[in-house]
Design a protein that fits this description.
The chain is α/β, with parallel strands linked by helices and 305 residues long. The chain is built from 10 helices and 11 strands. The strands form 2 sheets. Strands 4-7-6-5-8-9-11-10 form an 8-stranded mixed beta sheet, sandwiched between helices. Helix 2 packs across helix 9. The radius of gyration is 20 Å and the shape is globular.
Length: 305
């Protein structure tokens, strides 16, 4: 694992720094108190303090997402994130030059709820000096995220628990269709860093919702996001990104299978409804990207712990 990333990690049990140690397998990370965490042969490390409350996306859901994303259907999200992250790092660098607190000599990009790591990889490609860390509770997702980019690492971590990262260690934090922990995001993000949150807009996949019985976008989604981050972050910019896709029936089934509706839809009934749809199936992708900055805190001016 990239030592620059390990340097920012912390033990999920005692919050002490972690170091790489050689073992009989793929290695391990160990803290001074001898808490040890094996690196899986697929390249990710389990940094959970105890068991996760849920296993995250299944292997089938992750495979569906990988197939759909590799076709470029959600590249508008990756492109928007890469542009926003570039601006965010420029902002943090300017603050560093001005003499304010900033994280180390290189930016760390963390994707909380990274899935396959495709969006993180796009951001790292746009930021040649950055390193990246994919966090997720799904082992099938992490197996892919660990190989998503040469400068990326992956760790099993639950967003609702304390994140295995040092205070103020992260320059850019990505959160795409994933849970948000405002307090922990605030703790690990540099005071001059940025949180990039992608959420579905009201008409996201609207053509499929009624036809296939999918979950609707919560009309109060924006309010719920603000509530989850309130007191810790303030929004500084928001942009809407929309694209119309022309999908085959197979791609529609894959799209449904990679999202939350996969947990609530009868597979046989879904297949019948998808088959009845004339091709190509026109589908609207509509997402909102909001840039949030941390509210002031007392730790500004000291090095990451």
């Amino acid at each position: 694992m990239d030592p620059r990333i390990v340097d920012r990690l912390r033990c999920p049990v005692c919050a002490e720094p972690l170091a790489q140690v050689a073992t009989g397998g793929a290695g391990a990370l160990r803290c001074p108190r001898q808490h040890s965490f094996d690196v899986a042969r697929q390249g990710y490390v389990n940094l959970l303090a105890g068991r996760a409350p849920h296993a995250g996306d299944t292997a089938e859901m992750v495979a569906a997402r990988a197939d759909f994303l590799s076709a470029g259907h959600y590249d508008l999200i990756s492109t928007a994130l890469a542009a926003a992250a570039t601006r965010a790092v420029r902002h943090a660098t300017a603050a560093h030059v001005a003499g304010k607190h900033a994280v180390g000599a290189y930016p760390l990009v963390v994707d909380a709820g990274a899935g396959t790591g495709r969006h993180l990889a796009a951001v790292l490609t746009a930021l040649p000096d950055a390193a990246g860390l994919a966090l997720d509770v799904s082992k099938p997702a992490l197996r892919r995220a660990a190989r998503a980019h040469p400068r990326a690492a992956a760790a099993l971590a639950d967003t609702w628990q304390r994140l295995p990262l040092a205070d103020a260690s992260t320059a850019v934090l990505l959160n795409v269709f994933a849970p948000r922990n405002g307090a922990e995001f605030h703790r690990v993000l540099d005071p001059d860093g940025s949180l990039l949150v992608v959420t579905p807009a009201e008409d996201h996949l609207a053509e499929l919702v009624g036809a296939l019985g999918l979950l609707r976008v919560d009309p109060a989604k924006a309010d719920r996001v603000a509530d989850s981050l309130g007191g810790h972050f303030a929004p500084v910019a928001a942009t809407l990104h929309r694209r119309e896709l022309a999908l085959t029936g197979v791609e529609v089934a894959t799209l449904v299978g990679m999202g939350p509706s996969a947990w609530h839809t009868d597979p046989a009934g879904l297949a019948a409804r998808v088959t009845a749809m004339p091709e190509p199936v026109r589908v609207t992708v509509a997402v909102r990207l909001t840039v949030w900055r941390p509210t002031p805190r007392q730790v500004s001016g000291r090095a990451p712990s």
